[in-house]
Amino acid sequence: MRSIFNKRSDYSVTDWVAISFDKMWYPGEITDIENSDMKVKCMKRHGKNTFTLSEEDHYWYKGGEILCKLSTPAPLNARFFSLSELDFKTVTKLHEDMNK
Fold it and tell me: Fewest CB within a 10 Å sphere: which of 15, 54, 55, 79?
């Protein structure tokens, strides 16, 4: 499995990242960092590029599960968010390449 996670110093708490888990990818906000592991509060997918925040999806991920940094998702309304088109395309391509 290959990601573009470089080193822990490239990331900080409150950064947004894409993580790979169970052959899917999810955007999330880093809430804690320990060595190269990061605790990320992930969003749930609700359509192609639409996501909602999820209180229960808050787990530790290893550096190799982090695909890349993201821009902060843009709110569509009070519940739903979307990624920039560039972030969405970049993460989709990285995730496809990772799972070949």
Answer: 55
Q: What is the pLDDT of residues 30-80, one digit of tens each?
A: 999 998 899 999 999 998 999 998 878 899 999 889 999 999 999 999 999
Q: Provide the domain count of the chain.
A: 1
Coil, strand or helix at 50: coil
Distance CA 65, CA 78 (A): 29
Q: Give the C-alpha separation, 85 to 91, whole Å.
A: 10
- What gap in Å lies between CA 19 and CA 63, rounded to an integer? 9
- Tell me if 69 is assigned to some domain: yes
Whether 3 is covered by a domain: the verdict is no
